[in-house]
Every structure is written in C-alpha cells, then in structure tokens.
Amino acid sequence: MxxxxxxxxxxxxxxxxxxxGKTNLMASLGADVNGxxxxxxxxxxxxxxxxxxxxxxxxxxxxxxxxxxxxxxTQSRDLLSRLDAAILVIDASLGxxxxxxxxxxxxxxxxxxxxVVINRCADESCDDLERKLRQFGSRVVHMDLDKxxxxxxxxxxxxxxxxxxxxxxxxxxxxxxxxxxxxxxVPSGRKNYHHQIEPHEYHLKLDxxxxxxxxxxxxxxxxxxxxxxxxxxxxxVICDHEVLDxxxxxxxxxxxxxxxxxxxxxxxxxxxxxxxxxxxxKSLKAGDRILITSSSDLxxxxxxxxxxxxxxxxxxxxxxxxxxxxxxxxxxxSGLDGVxxxxxxxxxxxxRADGLSDVEVxxxxxxxxxxxxxxxxxxxxVLTRLVKPFVSLGEFSAPDVxxxxxxxxxxxxxxxxxxxM
Length: 421
Hints:
Layout: E1 10-16, H1 22-28, E2 43-49, E3 53-59, H2 73-82, E4 85-91, H3 98-109, E5 114-119, H4 127-135, E6 139-143, H5 152-166, E7 181-186, H6 199-210, E8 214-219, H7 220-229, E9 236-239, H8 244-250, E10 257-259, H9 260-267, H10 271-278, E11 289-294, H11 309-318, E12 323-328, H12 332-335, E13 341-344, H13 352-364, E14 369-371, H14 372-379, H15 383-392, H16 412-416
Helix pairs in contact: 11-14
C-alpha cells in the first residue's frame, strides 16, 4: 500500500535568558513540559499547531547559563542551522541587555525568521524595549508567561514571518538547470568547511537541491588542480570576495562567475538598484559624504566592513578624504540627508521587507544606494564580469565602470587595512 507523507515538521527554537517564561511559552503552544524541572534545562517537544502543522520546539539552555548557546560555537552553529524559525523571549522586568543583543544578532546571522515575545503582566510598561526592538525591525508579541497563555498572537506572527522568508526566490533561478553543476570556492583557511558552513552558503546548497543541480565546494588552494582535472566545466562559479582574485584569473571569461553577496542582492530584488547606485562611485570626489547603512544596527560591529574595508577602499578610489557617517533602522531617514552615496554593508540578513524598505527610503530621498558586494566589485573593476549572468538574462543593462582607476584585487588587503571611519 502506498503511504502518503505528512506535512514537513517545522523546527522552532525558543531562546532567552533563564527564568524568562520559555517553558510556559512552550506549554502555551501545546507542549507537555515539566515546569518543575531544573531551571535552564534543555527541552524538546513536538506539537501540532493550527496553521503551522507539526512543530518541533527546541529550548536550549538559558543564554546566561554558563553552559549556554554561544559557549560552544560549533553546537550553536549546528542548532541554528537546523531551525526554520526562532522565538526570543524577553522578560519586561529584566529588559534589554547584551544577552538579547548577542542572541538576536546570532539569529539574524543564521537568516532564520524570528519573533520576539515580551513576557509582561498587563500593568507593566515596556515602551523603551518596544522602541529598541522596532529599531531592529523585529516582529513583537506580548504574552503573560507567568502562566500558560493564549498563543494566537504568537502563531499569527510566526506564520507572517515564515511567509515573508518563504517568498524569496531561489538564489540560482535562471542560472542553472537540472543536472548542471555549480562550484562554490571558499577560502583555504576553512579546512573543515563542512563543519563551518555559513548560513547563506547553506541556503545556496538547499536552493541547488531544489533545482536538481549539484553544488561542489572547492577550497581556494585546490581550485586550480580541480579545474584542470574536471571532465567538464561547471555551469556557474560562485566565490567569496576573499578568493575572487585567484578564481577570476583561472575561470574563462565566457563562463559565468559571480559572488554570493551579489547573488543575495539579486535574490532580494535589489541588485539592479545597487548596480545603478555603484555607478555613482566614478564621480565621487574628495569631501563627498558617504553613509554606511544597514536595516538594523545589530549588524554594525567594530570589525565590520561598514567601519573598515569600504571607507578605506572608497578613500583610495577618490585619492582623497571622504566624510563617512553611520545610520540604521529608524535613523536611516534623517541619515540620508545631504548624502552623495549610501552603501549598505549588511551581507548576513535576508529580510527582504527591511531591505526593500531601505531602498525605497533612499529612492524617495533621491540618494543613490549600493551594497558592499557591488561596491567592492566596482572599485576593483570586476563588476561588469560578476553581473554579466544577470545582464545576459535581461534583468538590467551592463554597468558603466571606470576601469582607469580600478584597484587591483591582489592588493585588496593593503587597501582595506588603511585607517577608515
């Protein structure tokens, strides 16, 4: 007898500090959990939720537990890569801290849909916390988790977030067909690559599988020999910008080559806008104002491209000084005033709604906007080649790139190590 497969099980992580109401949240969703168990203990339960189907809830150790997520990075990476969505629980009486910021940034980096649940009593005020979360673009739900609570608002929010992410097109749409191969070239420093796969690379792998195409991961040090031994070339080569110099020298110009950053910009529907914005770089001059932006300041860290590489590269390009500023979230609107170019340095977030919102704000303010990946390719003179696959598909016209001032890729580290912000 032929058996029919049931709906796919949704895996949802429930995160937060100890004693913030995570166990009662799981119980609210129908989980049979032991509330009298050891505080901070890891729990897992499968429930059936109307509108979502079977859901596996995973509650790891509390974030502030000494054994918690983040202490063992490999375990945290493995857990986050398993999830379809994440719930972050914040106790209104405890408020916002570095714990929540750390975990929310980890969830964003994993590219998982997220909902933030504020555990609050009816008379508790949490205006400052709400304002902070709105700045980060988080979807917020209020629940009183001192007891089992009505889960309807949380379920509605989860469905909305999942739909928002599910609507993203395949990263490889129009680029490869069934049976064709894609090579992903990664830095040689990641010898144990399959234990260090980054979330956006994981999504590339899944998207290749959906198209019945093969994805081969090649270390930079092995690329030349692998290319020589290949019985037939791949249909598409994708690489990290760190290995672009080596790869673009070996790949014939008639074979499609691009980067994962550029593929991501295209997936979000922003690539054409960013390519057009990058053309502004050729007319930049000393004294111009550049805004480094992201949709939320979770991604702006001291060692990010926003504070280091991009300012250095653009100053080298203009052969003079530029005025840089930072803006994100709610500060983007005013931050764009009087700016000559905006560069969004946000390679890890796949929140298409936030991204398109940022592009719309820049368009309304008549400010050209580009992304780190596109601007990087422009100043190094390789943008035309990296977007050729999409130009060939008729998605936009070939960019106007000033090759007379292109910065050699081989010297990228030297250019990007100069003093910046």
